[in-house]
Design brief:
The complex is a heterotetramer. Chain A is mainly alpha-helical. Chain A is built from three helices and no strands. The mean pLDDT of chain A is 89. By secondary structure, chain D is mainly α. Chain D has a single domain, classed as Orthogonal Bundle (Helix Hairpins). Classes of the chains: A mainly alpha, B mainly alpha, C mainly alpha, D mainly alpha. Chains B and D meet through helix 1, helix 2, helix 3, helix 4 and helix 5 of B and helix 1, helix 2 and helix 3 of D.
């Protein structure tokens, strides 16, 4: 394993941890809005780490740019999707959970 | 194949039937639809593992994007409680259960014991030069089995006509309660969707991609525009829509029948211009299939009475 | 490196399967939709990891298509009106 | 067990489950879903069989079949949904009428 491989592996492991954290949040958090917050972790950070690992390891620049493009696109799409989900939930009269 | 590959395959292959079971067992139809979307995503991974990236591409667009949207939309029209057929008696369920178990086990055993080594891969490879395309799957679709694809587009156009006859679609009015996000997102994504569709179509001659993939992506983008209320659902009354709907079929038939005039066989492309003809068919097919898929989407039900009489909105 | 990537994909797959419990539990449709979105993100990650194997480059396009069409279902869900008046 | 046989068994299980769904589920929408899922099972078996030659190139003929099959299956589902929409509409609008 070269240095790059080691770094890439570390990045992937960190990314996988964020994916795992997202699932835990999805299962443990009390309402839709907090779960949305949990979901953004794998979306943004988790995939970000995995993509960085792949990008530094790829031999071609085009490949690195493509995986980064997928990540950026997913950031945009999921950010808006989360807003849409939150707004639809709010419009249906569901209010955020609070510790009473 | 390493042990980890095996673990991945086993987990994936177990998750799919479990999802199917949950889809059919879940009490709430909306969660069935969500689970169905999840199954679409998971099965795309299975196609990827089985070295079928073409199918993964179509599945990604059709299974996850289109069918999910169609089902969710149909659910808004039908309602969660409507559309219930007669309850099935216990005896029938037990009988059917026994029968399908037999079918499943028999099928699995039969498939695993297929010893005949592999079908037509060698034949396709040997004749690839005659097909005028470099990518085997595209060669099978448009050259070796052009017949199938020609009939398929006919089936698709018929299905689109049928779907529109039954549920002609509606035009939602009023303010968008989700404004402005869907509209902005659709506007940002549309150029990228068109670019990706073009890229997939262009790749089809030499690598995974082609008319079906491009059309599925385009249709997904179209549905996004309709959902975001940027575009209205395509209307049958529009000449442009009708032309786009039949373009693929008409052009394919023309190209297929033309060699008959020179004494050649049906679908025998003249070898000098074969590649150009295949590409032109692919472009026409992309257009038609994407419009067909878009026609399946009847639009949102309008609030109140309007949704009850969709024929008024033809 | 293939083994490392496969190891990561197995972890991702198992973690997303655990998330399935949320679809069953709900309680609202939005919660279920979140799981579908998590599935989508995970599928993209898995596809990108698988695409690093030689000969599997096309899977990057699949990931791209996934990303592009993910919002369709989310927006149909958001438009979903239960006609009987029941909540999401 | 090789990879293809695992997926082929999975396909057989999906076919059995969804066949059961077609006959035993009460909601019309679920029957439509089940019919669509039978297709998924069949495709899985076909593509698994095409991959028997792994690690050599898989057989392109089943791939082409499934490719068209996926699109046909979404059309069939969409047509069925359109009919189901119309049926629900009829039922709700003329309850007094003679619609079955």
């Amino acid at each position: 394993m070269t240095v790059i491989d080691v770094v890439a592996t570390a990045l992937w492991v960190v990314g996988a941890v964020f994916f795992f954290a997202g699932t835990v949040g999805l299962l443990r958090f009390p309402d839709v809005y907090t779960r949305l917050h949990a979901l953004t972790k794998p979306d943004n950070v988790g995939l970000g780490f995995i993509v960085s690992g792949l990008a530094i390891q790829s031999s071609e620049l085009a490949v690195a740019l493509k995986v980064i493009a997928v990540w950026v696109l997913l950031l945009v799409v999921n950010a808006v999707s989360c807003q849409v989900i939150a707004r639809a939930t709010w419009n249906r009269g569901i209010r955020p959970w609070s510790r009473r | 194949m390493t042990a980890l590959d095996l673990v991945f395959d086993v987990v994936l292959a177990t998750v799919m039937p479990v999802l199917v079971w949950r889809i059919l067992a879940s009490k709430d139809l909306a969660s069935s639809v969500v689970l169905f979307v999840a199954l679409g995503l998971v099965s795309a991974l299975a196609w990827a593992r089985l070295h079928a990236p073409d199918i993964a591409l179509v599945e990604a667009a059709v299974g996850a994007g289109l069918t999910g949207a169609l089902l969710m939309n149909a659910l808004s029209w039908i309602g969660a409680e409507a559309g219930v057929t007669e309850p099935v008696s216990r005896a029938t369920r037990v009988g059917v259960g026994i029968l399908v178990t037999a079918v499943g086990v028999g099928l699995a055993v039969a498939v695993i014991h297929l010893t005949q080594p592999v079908g037509l891969a060698h034949e396709v490879d040997a004749r690839l030069a005659d097909a005028h395309v470099d990518y085997p799957v595209t060669a099978v679709l448009l050259s070796f089995r052009g017949y199938d694809t020609l009939l398929e587009i006919a089936v698709l156009v018929t299905a689109a006509l049928g779907a529109r006859l039954y549920a002609p679609g509606s035009v939602p009015g009023g303010d968008d309660p989700l404004s402005p996000h869907p509209r902005v997102l659709a506007r940002v994504l549309t150029p990228i969707v068109v670019l990706v569709a073009g890229y997939l179509l262009w790749r089809g001659a030499s690598a995974p991609g082609g008319a079906f993939q491009a059309a599925a992506v385009l249709a997904g983008g179209g549905i996004l525009l309709v959902l975001a209320r940027v575009l209205r659902p395509p209307r049958m009354s529009s000449i442009a829509v009708r032309a786009a709907l039949v373009a693929g079929l008409a052009w394919f038939i023309a190209v297929a029948a033309l060699p008959l005039a020179t004494g050649a066989q049906l679908l025998e492309y003249p070898s000098a211009s074969a590649k150009q003809l295949i590409i032109s068919i692919e472009v026409a097919l992309t257009l038609s299939i994407s419009i067909v898929l878009l026609m399946f989407f009847p639009g949102e039900p309008a609030p109140g009475e309007a949704a009850r009489h969709p024929e008024d909105r033809w | 490196m293939h083994e490392v990537r496969m190891g990561i994909t197995v972890v991702l797959l198992i973690s997303v399967v655990a998330g399935l419990a949320r679809i069953t539990r709900g309680p609202t449709l939005a919660d279920r939709m979140l799981v579908a979105q998590l599935f989508c993100t995970t599928a993209v990650a898995v596809l990108l990891l698988l695409a690093a194997d030689p000969g599997a480059e096309a899977l990057r396009d699949v990931a791209l298509v996934f990303t592009l069409l993910a919002p369709t279902v989310v927006i149909t869900f958001a438009r979903y009106r239960a006609p009987t008046g029941a909540g999401p | 067990m090789s990879a293809w046989s695992i997926y082929a068994c999975s396909g057989a299980a999906i076919i059995a489950l969804s066949l059961y769904g077609v006959f035993a589920c009460a909601p019309l929408l679920k029957r439509i879903l089940a019919a669509n899922l039978i297709g998924t099972g069949v495709f899985l078996i076909l593509v698994a069989l095409a991959d028997r030659s792994a690690p050599a190139q898989p057989d392109p003929v089943p791939h082409a079949l499934v490719l068209t099959g996926v699109v046909i299956s979404v059309s069939a589902t969409a047509l069925a949904l359109a009919i189901a929409i119309r049926l629900a509409d009829r039922r709700s609008s003329d309850d007094e009428g003679g619609w079955p």
